[in-house]
Amino acid sequence: MFVLPYRSVIKIAGSDRASFLQGIITNDINLVSNSKFLYALILSPQGKVLYDLFILDRADHYLIDVPSAYIEDIVKKFNMYRLSSDVEISHLHNFNVCLSKSYISNSFSKEPRDSASSYYRGFIKDELINGDIAKLKDYHLERVNLKIPELSIDFFPQEYFALELCMNRLNAINYQKGCYVGQEVTARTTYRGVVRKSIYKITFFHLTEAAEISPGMEISSNEEVIGKTMQPVDINSLALLNKKKADEVIENNLKLRLNSIEAFIN
Questions:
Q1: Bridge partners, residue 200, by sequence
Q2: Do 132 and 247 share a domain, yes or no?
């Protein structure tokens, strides 16, 4: 077991907690349980990803795993939407978000974004857990192979649309639930089939070159910009690419270029 140092925990209690979240998140809160995380997003009115949430039901409250860098903004947004609802929102400073290769307790469940993941995700209270750099790196290697982008590492709030990041494939979007902020844009884009970008895994030719890459760098093919990088892990990285151009690169076995660095779609 090891801690995810960039994630924190919020508790939401009160009799209106379900209806409160239902109007905000992209997934159906009625699908949450005490044995399985519900993965969901908070979107901007334009449909871009603001924050992601892993929600677990605890009978009389929810425990929600959120990105640490934006926890104050998330609590502030929740309080803005709360109005007169019976909802109590608190930051649980004494909780850690952890990952494990095995089931530990009823606060752990399988990674909800992809059934192929080998990890359990959960919460540990009142324990000092040392960060394990090697285990954390193994996790990032696996999720890159599964094409799972990580908020605050690969991308940042207001940067990309949910469907560009393939969040529908990652079980974050429910098309049968009611309205939420950003729902109209997301639904319209889905039904019109006009998602022009997608997540790809790219591989650099040398490990030393990967060290020079940072999120947001432009990726070119035949001197035409076709997308941007995310955070590399060893010689691999996720990238957001124009789907039409990426298909041409794959079909013609072309190289990608990031400044003077070469890579290929893997």
A1: 239
A2: no
Of 71, 5, 59, 1, the closest CA to residue 32 belongs to 59
Q: Determine how many CB atoms are found less than 10 A away from the CB of residue 231.
A: 18
Q: pLDDT digits over 55-106, tens only?
A: 999 989 999 999 999 999 999 999 998 888 999 999 999 999 999 999 988 8
Please answer whether residues 238 and 200 qualify as being in contact, where contact means their C-beta atoms are separated by less than 8 angstroms. Answer: yes
- The enclosing domain of 44 has a CATH number of 3.30.1360.120
- From CA 100, how far away is CA 253, in angstroms rounded? 38
Q: CB-hemisphere CA count at 13 Å for 217?
A: 22
Q: What is the pLDDT of residues 117-171, one digit of tens each?
A: 999 999 998 765 666 778 999 999 999 999 999 999 999 999 999 999 999 999 9
**Per DSSP, what are the bridge partners of residue 8?**
66
Q: Is the CB of residue 3 less than 8 Å from the CB of residue 139?
A: no
pTM of the predicted structure, to 2 decimals: 0.93
Residue 164 lies in a domain: no
Neighbour order of strands in the sheet with 7-13: 38-43, 49-57, 61-67, 7-13, 88-91
Coil/strand/helix, residue 6? coil
What is the domain count for the chain? 2
Q: Do 41 and 177 touch, CB atoms closer than 8 A?
A: no
**Whether residues 11 and 138 fall in one domain:** yes
DSSP structure string for 129-156: ----HHHHHHHHHHHHHTT---BTTTB-
